[in-house]
Amino acid sequence: MAKINDKVSNALPTNNELIDNEQVVVNREVLSNSETWEDEDDEEFEMERICQNCSYFFQKDDNAYSEMGICTNEAAFDPHQEKLLDDEWSPALTMLFNELQFSGERECCEQFEEIETLDLPEGMSFQTYQQIEERKTGNTEYILEFLKTAPFEDRWAGVDALSDYLFHGNQSAHDSLIKYYNSLGPVESLEDTKLRVRMVELMTRRNTSKEAIDAFVLEMERTPSNSTSRQLYTKILDVLHRCPIEMIEEPLQALLVRKKFSPKIKQRITDTSNGIGKYDGYWF
After folding, report:
1. ∠ CA 118-120-124 to the nearest 5 degrees?
2. Contacts with 124 (C-beta within 8 Å, 6 or more apart), sequence order
3. Are 135 and 167 in contact (CB under 8 A)?
4. If you ran DSSP here, which 8-state letter would residue 105 be given?
5. How far apart are alpha carbons 140 and 233 in whole angstroms?
6. Over the range 15-34, which residues count as b (16 or more CB within 10 Å of their CB) and which as e?
7. Banded model confidence at residue 122, pLDDT cuts 50, 70, 90
8. Among 23, 150, 192, 255, which is 20 to 30 Å from 216 by CA?
């Protein structure tokens, strides 16, 4: 099985991918959010209405710094739109490209559609921008499937992969992590406890959602409180103690009805549901 980090790397967009179905010019370092940009003397220039500045103009990777390219709006390329983004082209597509390519300096036609422009932070490459955007919006279901089937020792890599998406506020990663957490059984070992503590931290990095609270309540219901699960219980109750009472009171009180705990742990859960006090460290 391929390493999950390789899967994440392979999932990143390439320099030729399309964003919102509009091609973004890669070989231009100065991009902006308007129809004009400023040079070093702060003089504004209108974007020339030439094919090079049209969203339909396409250049091969090995031809990106040349003025030659093709118009993807040409009917001859209709069957090849997706194949244009492949790393390797068929001889027929290469021949068609070479036959119909022209200079991007050519004056545009009536179908001219201005390229999408981006205001990149200073020093950021377009590839880095693509990677960040993919982390913000990319689907993480494939990481969830990896976690469900991977040996335990490989699951840390899967969780770390999700953490990269979570750092950028990816909702899919948050949902995938909760789905995986809810699919687990009771804690089986100290290493299992450590991994779950890490997942709790990730699920509450920005805020604690109702879905995360439900997952923590489920954890306390399925996992016995003992020396193996001590650190996990402590982490969960610490997180829940910081939540608004209206979010935790009902689920915690319902938990106490469904499951019998030792007097000490029961009191901790009761205090947490009522917002009473704050404990430090372990409660055993």
Report:
1. 140
2. none
3. yes
4. T
5. 28
6. ebebeeeebbbbeeeebeee
7. confident
8. 150
For the stretch 168-219, pLDDT in tens is: 999 999 999 999 999 999 999 999 999 999 999 999 988 889 999 999 999 9
User: From CA 221, how far away is CA 68, in angstroms rounded?
Assistant: 65
Per-residue pLDDT, averaged over 7-35, amounts to 36
Per-residue pLDDT tens over the stretch 125-139: 777 887 888 889 989
- Torsions phi, psi of 274, nearest 5? -100, 0
Residue 70 is encoded by which pair of tokens?
A: 């093709």
- Residue 135 amino acid letter: R
CB 46 within 8 Å of CB 36: yes
Residue 32 φ/ψ region, left for φ over 0, alpha for ψ in the -120 to 50 degree band, beta for the rest: beta
DSSP for 185-199?
A: -S--SHHHHHHHHHH
Query: Over 70: is that where the pLDDT of 26 sits?
Result: no
Q: What is the CA radius of gyration of the chain?
A: 27
Cβ atoms of 248 and 213 closer than 8 Å: yes
